[in-house]
Amino acid sequence: MISTKGYAAFDPVQPLAPYDFERRDVGAHDVMIEILFCGVCHSDLHTVRSEWGGATYPVVPGHEIVGRIVKVGNLVEKFSVGETAGVGCMVDSCRSCPSCEEGLEQYCEVGFTGTYNSPEPGLNTPTYGGYSNQIVVKEDFVLKIREDQDLARIAPLLCAGITTYSPLRHWKVGAGHKVAVVGLGGLGHMAVKLAASMGAEVTVLSTSPEKETDATDLGAHKFVVTKDPQALEEVKNTFDFIINTVSAKVSLDMYASLLRRDGTMILLGVPPEAPELQAATLIFGRRRIAGSLIGGIAETQEMLDYCAEHDILSDVEVIPVNYINEAYERMLEGDVKYRFVIDMASL
Questions:
Q1: Are 292 and 211 in contact (CB under 8 A)?
Q2: Judging by DSSP bridges, how do beta strands 2-8 and 17-23 pair with one another?
Q3: Can you list the residues of the chain whose pLDDT is less than 70?
Q4: What is the Cα–Cα distance from 217 to 225, expressed in whole angstroms?
Q5: Helices (H), the chain
Q6: DSSP code of residue 139
Q7: What span, in angstroms and rounded, lies between the C-alpha atoms of 36 and 156?
Q8: Coil, strand, or helix at residue 239?
Q9: DSSP calls for 163-186
Q10: Of 315, 310, 180, 176, nearest to 242 (Cα)?
Q11: Do 15 and 59 form a contact (C-beta atoms < 8 A)?
């Protein structure tokens, strides 16, 4: 076993604190990565506070991992020591169900192995994530990172980037489409950048008028304040797609009314309560509500390559690991533009 240092939650209410633990030895198909940066996802906060249930403590969060390979197993073919690599939300899956065989490991019908808080295959321990100095992952779930980039700004692409890229690709969003983005946070700011880069006309729907300048700077073409009834009336029956990144309770009915006929609203956030939605709003416009979950490994690599080619990076605030508890509170207040990233050299 490999001695590892990290930061962990030990119960749902106490602050995260230093935690020493062990990772498995590097097997024949494994890659060992020295973690340089790890993004802070809202899912981390949900998990450590057991807001979704099922937390196995101690929890070492973190699934937006970028680092340098320091060791590879003797059967590893795709990676070499010294290369830059990434790890996203998954570290394994069954490999044999229809979804896995189609490269859609995120929909593994047995259940994918999460980078943290999942049963570690073959061990009687949970997986531990990227709030740590190193990680051991099967090579099939490791991603190639181009070295000539700002690695801190790459890290959030491993979750926020792929979560927004995957639905845009699945629904073939491009030139001629009108796309609205609900929520200008970690996911939303990536949705704006990606949709605009694909040629879509992008509108940000927000309750906060003060975010208009930021939305424009990120690439949005239009901005609508959803608290303004007249502004909403003017965009009814307008959008081909709405990318809804909000995890708070919202009226899906109101947003669905903004879709044109045959338009689709794609849900990326998980609200704590059932949303409001009238069947008639869908029926009378043949509108659709859909959901999307991260992306498979091949698509995540495609996203990383696409972002490198188009110079798309996440907007981040780099923090030391001992600031994580304050960062969580600021994240709840929306006080970050737009993703915290931990510099793991501070561990």
A1: no
A2: antiparallel
A3: none
A4: 17
A5: 42-48, 98-101, 151-154, 160-170, 186-197, 212-218, 229-234, 252-256, 279-283, 297-309, 324-332
A6: G
A7: 13
A8: strand
A9: HHHHHHHHTT--TT-EEEEE--SH
A10: 180
A11: no
